[in-house]
Every structure is written in structure tokens, then in C-alpha cells.
């Protein structure tokens, strides 16, 4: 690929949202996740900008057009782990909030689930307290 002006999403294939993109830099491969419709961010991408993350404990994550990330380098779609890993969904342990906080923060957290657990613990405790006060009679006999 010669330059940004000749960039085409049809080269070397048409990425779909969720595809892993391997970009061949001079001394390493840079990876990106294709999201589909992308927003332009301020500033140009350079190999120096992505290399800053190597020397820091904090990664720089940007949403940019694929053509701007690739620049004059070449790339390919490489979903190499599709047959090995599967992301399962679990409302209480691996929901959409867990997923996005894992991507953003490195740890999957869901405050919704934490609140739900806290409320159910309180409800259980109140139910037990009421039951004990009523002489362990079932709730239906009040």
C-alpha cells in the first residue's frame, strides 16, 4: 500500500466489526480491533505514539479510522483465536458491563451486579429476621 490516499477497506479484505487487525510496522506488529464506523480523533498516528505505551504502564487507546492507524504500512485481518477462545455471557458474572470495564480498565466490574447482590443480601436478611420474629412461621401464615 503506497499512501493514505490509496487506502481502501477492500484491501486486503473487508473487515467486519470485531475483527482483529494485524498491522506490520518496521520492527513489530501493532494490533487493532475493527469497530466498523469509526470516529476521527485529533492528531495523526505515528509509530512513536504507539511505542510510548511500551515504556509506560498505561496504554494509549484511541478510536481512529483504520486508514489512519495503518498509515503507509500493510495490514491483514487475523482473527487467530476464534477457534480457541469463546466469550460466554453470564448476567451476574460476565455481562456487558464486565466486558467493557475489562477492556477499558483491565478488570471486569459490574456495579449493577454488586447492587443486585447487596439488595438480595439485605432482602434475605430482612426475611430471616421477620421469620425469626414470627416464631419461624412461613411467610404465608402471617
Automatic annotation (TrEMBL):
One GO CC annotation: cytoplasm
Biological processes, Gene Ontology terms: N-acylphosphatidylethanolamine metabolic process
Residue span, LRAT domain: 20-112
Pfam families noted in UniProt: LRAT (PF04970)
Keywords: Hydrolase, Lipid metabolism, Transferase
Coiled coil regions in record: none
Positions of transmembrane segments: none
GO molecular function list: N-acyltransferase activity; phospholipase A1 activity; phospholipase A2 activity
Annotated family: Belongs to the H-rev107 family.
Protein name from the UniProt record: Phospholipase A and acyltransferase 1
Organism for this UniProt entry: Chelonoidis abingdonii
Amino acid at each position: 500500500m503506497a499512501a493514505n490516499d490509496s487506502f481502501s477497506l477492500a484491501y486486503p479484505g473487508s473487515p467486519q466489526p470485531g475483527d482483529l487487525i494485524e498491522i506490520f510496522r518496521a520492527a513489530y506488529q501493532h494490533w487493532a480491533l475493527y469497530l466498523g464506523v469509526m470516529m476521527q480523533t485529533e492528531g495523526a498516528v505515528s509509530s512513536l505514539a504507539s511505542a510510548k505505551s511500551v515504556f509506560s504502564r498505561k496504554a494509549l487507546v484511541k478510536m481512529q479510522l483504520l486508514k489512519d492507524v495503518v498509515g503507509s504500512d500493510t495490514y491483514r485481518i487475523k482473527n487467530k483465536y476464534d477457534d480457541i477462545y469463546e466469550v460466554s455471557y453470564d448476567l451476574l458474572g460476565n455481562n456487558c458491563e464486565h466486558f467493557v470495564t475489562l477492556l477499558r480498565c483491565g478488570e471486569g466490574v459490574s456495579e449493577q451486579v454488586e447492587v443486585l447482590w447487596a439488595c438480595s443480601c439485605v432482602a434475605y436478611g430482612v426475611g430471616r429476621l421477620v421469620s425469626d420474629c414470627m416464631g419461624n412461621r412461613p411467610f404465608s401464615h402471617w
